[in-house]
């Protein structure tokens, strides 16, 4: 599955008390699998910083609409799980510069 340079990237970041690492991977495996079924998703990179107690992800979507729909849904889901401070942003992908640095946008 690929995209063109008009794809959009969503970047949600949130405070997260843990767990992290292997324990988080085990705990959220089914969630990770379900994310593959989200409309417009091309890929996701999971991020975490145990020291600062924050987590998030970098997602590439086919377009801004599917990125925004996912960000709205995921923010609501996190709040239902007790995560109060969800910060999410949607960015345009700069294709020419990303290709110079071997960005995985295709």
Largest sheet: 4 strands, antiparallel
**Average pLDDT value?**
85
- CA radius of gyration is 14 Å
Percent helix: 25-40%
Structure classification: alpha+beta
Identify the quaternary structure here.
Answer: single chain
**Annotation field: number of helices:** 4
Strand order of the largest sheet: 2-3-1-4
* CA(first)-CA(last) distance: 8 Å
Tell me what portion of residues adopts beta-strand conformation: 25-35%
* Poorly predicted residue ranges: 1-5
Order of helices and strands: EHHEEHEH
Described by the principal axes of the CA atoms, the overall outline is: globular
Briefly summarize what is shown.
This protein is α+β, with helices and mostly antiparallel strands and 106 residues long. Helices cover 35% and strands 30% of the residues.
Walkthrough of the structure:
There is one protein chain. With 106 residues, this protein is an alpha+beta fold. Helix content is 35%, strand content 30%. The chain has four helices and four strands; from the N terminus they run E-H-H-E-E-H-E-H. A four-stranded antiparallel β-sheet has the order 2-3-1-4, with helices on one face. The longest helix has 17 residues, at 64-80. The protein is globular and about 35 Å long. The protein starts with 7 loop residues before the first strand and ends in a 6-residue tail after the last helix.
